[in-house]
Sequence to fold (239 residues):
Amino acid sequence: MLEVSDISVSYGQHRALSEAALNVERGEIVVILGANGAGKTTLLKAIAGLLPCAPGKRVRLGGRDLSRVAPHDIVEAGLALVPEGRGIFADLTVAENLLLGANPKRARASEVEQRAKVLGLFPKLGERLKQTVRTMSGGEQQMVAIGRALMSRPDILLLDEPSLGLSPLLVRELFAALRVVRDSGVGLLLVEQNARESLAIADRGYLLENGEIVGHGRAMELQSDPAVRRAYLGGLAGV
Ligand code: ATP
Fold:
């Protein structure tokens, strides 16, 4: 469904990403694991069309070439990003944020139906529709951010560290919701430092080190790979 290749990004002299390539199918969760500064955010932003890349970048979604398409048209094509820091409108209410999420043409006609799906996924949001997002907890704000992205009816959802700052219990709740999104047929590309929890819900994973994809595999294989355990799982047995 989503195929990207040859994504290279530099910030001035600093090469943050070198010829990254990956794919995500509908109905699967793919996690990108990497330490601080590995280039995870850069990769998601580059896929979403938000960063200038070196020539040669290829982004294809459902067979359509999006390599040179503007970010808002990438959303129209079915790719939505939940950025780090959430990217929500903190001074607006939950209902207003969800409505804005349905602004792309692909989503307008099905706004009511999509909103019902989002509120089914995150029932807490249904009780808080009139609440200003700024006054909500971190976990609730993350739900708003994901809900808003889902309102655009994406085929592929990109999520940048959704577990950041959440308690272990909330992370589990959130990841359970991501499974439901996956089972509805959406493909999820998840960037995470929380390797243990994200590998537990993922189907596949890629390892990003210093801007290069250095490994990939089924999530279960990665969980038991000694090098992955040392680098990302604290070397603990019995994961
Ligand atoms: P983290 O988990 O800490 O957010 P990350 O894996 O998402 O890290 P990126 O944010 O993609 O990493 O950054 C990759 C590299 O590019 C880092 O060395 C970072 O310092 C650098 N970088 C990112 N954004 C910029 C920028 N706007 N200007 C200069 N350098 C940048």
Residues 185 and 205 are 18 Å apart (CA to CA). The first helix runs from residue 40 to 47.
